[in-house]
Amino acid sequence: MGSACWDREIEALDRPSLRKLQLKRLKETVKYALKTPFYKARLGKAGIRSPEDIKSLDDLQKIPFTTKDDLRENYPYGLLAVDRDDVVRMHSSSGTTGIPTVIYHTKKDLDYWTELVARSIYATGARKSDVFQNMMTYGMFTGGLGLHYGAERVGMTVIPIGGGNTKRQLQLMKDFGTTVVHITPSYMLHIHSKLAEEGITLKDLRLKKAFLGAEPYSEATRKKIEELYGIDAYNSYGMSEMNGPGVAFECDYKKDMHVWEDSYIPEIIDPKTCEVLKEEREGEVVLTNITRRATPLLRYRTRDLACLYKQGCACGRTHRRMSRIMGRSDDMLIINGVNVFPSQIEAVIMKVPEVGNNYQVYLEKDGSLDKLIVKVEIYSKLFTGDISALEKLKHRLKEELKASIIIKPQVELHEPGSLPVFEGKAKRVVDNRGKL
Amino acid sequence: MTKQLNIFVENKPGKLDAIAKVLSDAGVQIIAFTIQNRGDFGLVRLLVGDPEKAAVALNEKGFACAQKDIVAVSVKDKKGNLHRLTSLLLEKNVNMVDTYGFVTSSGGTGICCIEADDLPGVKKILEKGGFKVLGEAELYNL
User: Most buried pick, A119, B55, B68, B138, via CB within 10 A?
Assistant: First the structure.
């Protein structure tokens, strides 16, 4: 039993030594965190004024949680812990209310992240002889660049096509004998539905593996993809606040994802009481990044729901495994791999006077892809009676929503007072995509 | 200026029925109507006996309803008459935006209702060309 490791020394490090390494790195991270105005105040209040106030890993629990709101409120430089000259890259995500979040990286930070991704790729059995087609969006979204550099480090031939354009994806897969893809599960299913249309059969392809991430999906979906293509599919977990992909990844045993504990300290909490839960219990994932200097994040509340397993893995790695993501503890929606908060949609609608304040968001399946439908009401007092003005209004809403949430929705105009009115908490989001 | 009502409706059954009921209850006569379809929504455009009263009644029932200025011109119901009218407007390069016509039962007269950018200009062109543009009293009492 056991499988080949990219870095056996770290990946199979015994638990006591791993915990020792975590403590050392946590203290180092606290040292950097204390250089930021945000953490200096936040940690000071909790009685932590120097890294020496952290004496054991148990002291982690003295540290207050960090949230996405903290990142927003300290935009753009409040959480920067190094000299600006030492920052070599930043990744930013659009905010829920217009204020974005930003994560900075030093050269060393990127190097460690790349190591984690290379290690993840290698754990699936992919090697330098593989041809890797990266179908995740490049740019600010960390899924594209994150896997890209990891794959290069492994030595794979990388095809950096990014997302979309199914016809071209298939052409490249066929012409260059792509063996590994990085893709969202919904897009993987979509591509399969287009094979016949493009005149391509599975025999034309040399596909062996798929890394599936950026959106939650079920074990049944993984099995379906594996059967449809006759390949192995591996689950991937990460988020921009924690660098991006490479936080946790499945090894070739495909039994849940190893969290790379030399770089992240995972905790599972009860999202309501914030009590730290034992292994095997489902709750919100809280992560501390202990290898990033430019933007240290301590006990970051991811809002993802999952559980950690205590039992080791037959692969021989000692890093604990985490279940697939089972949901969210906030109202964030994941639409074709893109994170969207209903508040972003609301903010756009409220800026357009020609529509009323009542609205609804519908999520439907369109084949294997997600479809977003935003329903708004015409505001009587500003109705001019022009059909061209209505079409322009619809177009404008579509474009402004796309600029805010990246996804281009279908916009429906409705009569005043025709959408349901809620007493108390409004149920504006109707998700008809079915269970995971 | 003579007016018609433009009402925003979702494209689903029962919309025209609901509008007709509001006007029937309000005692407003419908002289003509057309429907403009744009996929999931559309406009119902109504020529009525009392636009102000109809608009108030429809607004009260929650409809988004606007009063639009139009030029209503009477055209003798005779071969070639519409062409005479359109060529007059074309000569002056007038773009008729939303336009419809109907024939009254009484006098063998056609009525053409025109929406365009410069309505006073359109009115002038048509009157100069010998057409009769209807005033409010004439139109609403057809």
Answer: A119
Which residues does A contribute to its contact with B (CB < 8 Å)?
378-380, 383-387, 390-391, 412-418
- Do the Cβ atoms of B62 and A415 come within 8 Å? yes
d(CA A78, CA A37): 6
- Measured between beta carbons, which residues in chain B are less than 8 angstroms from residue A383? 8, 64-66
Q: How many CB atoms lie within 10 A of CB A424?
A: 5
Which residues have C-beta within 8 Å of that of residue B127, sequence separation ≥ 6? B133
Q: What is the pLDDT along chain A (436 residues), one digit of tens a residue?
A: 578 999 999 999 999 999 999 999 999 999 999 999 999 999 999 999 999 999 999 999 999 999 999 999 999 999 999 999 999 999 998 655 568 899 999 999 999 999 999 999 999 999 999 999 999 999 998 999 999 999 999 999 999 999 999 999 999 999 999 999 999 998 999 899 899 999 999 999 999 999 999 888 889 889 999 999 999 999 999 999 999 999 999 999 999 999 999 999 999 999 999 999 999 999 999 999 999 999 999 999 999 999 999 988 999 999 999 999 998 888 899 998 888 988 889 888 988 999 988 899 999 999 889 999 999 999 988 999 999 999 999 999 999 999 888 889 999 999 998 998 776 566 789 999 986 6
Say if the Cβ atoms of B43 and A387 lie within 8 Å. Answer: yes
Q: B38 vs A386: CB contact, 8 Å cut-off?
A: no
pTM of the predicted structure, to 2 decimals: 0.80
Residue A160: Cβ within 10 Å count: 16
Tokens standing for A399? 């474009």
**SS3 label, residue A413:** strand
Using the beta-carbon criterion (under 8 Å), do B38 and A387 form an inter-chain contact? yes
CB contact under 8 A, A391 and B98: no
Whose CA is closest to A291, among A20, A19, A29?
A: A29
Residue A332: CB atoms within 10 Å: 16
Give yes or no for a contact between A76 and A90, defined as CB atoms under 8 angstroms apart.
no
Interface test with A, best of B10, B35, B41, B98 (most A CBs within 10 A): B41
Residue of A nearest to B45 (CA): A385
Taking the C-alpha atoms of residue A324 and residue A309, their distance in angstroms, rounded to an integer, is 11
CB pairs under 8 A between A and B: 52
Classified as helix, coil or strand, A338 is strand
Q: Are B34 and B100 in contact (CB under 8 A)?
A: yes
- A184 phi, psi to nearest 5 deg: -80, 150
Report the SS3 class of residue A224.
helix
Q: Within 13 Å, how many C-alpha atoms sit on residue B32's CB side?
A: 19
DSSP state string for B4-68: EEEEEEESSTTHHHHHHHHHHHHTPPEEEEEEEEETTEEEEEEEES-HHHHHHHHHHTT--EEEE
Partners of A392 on chain B (C-beta within 8 Å) are none
Cα B35 versus chain centre, distance: 11
Strand, coil or helix: A353: coil
> What's the token pair of residue B109?
């007269």
- With CA atoms as reference, the chain B residue closest to A419 would be B10
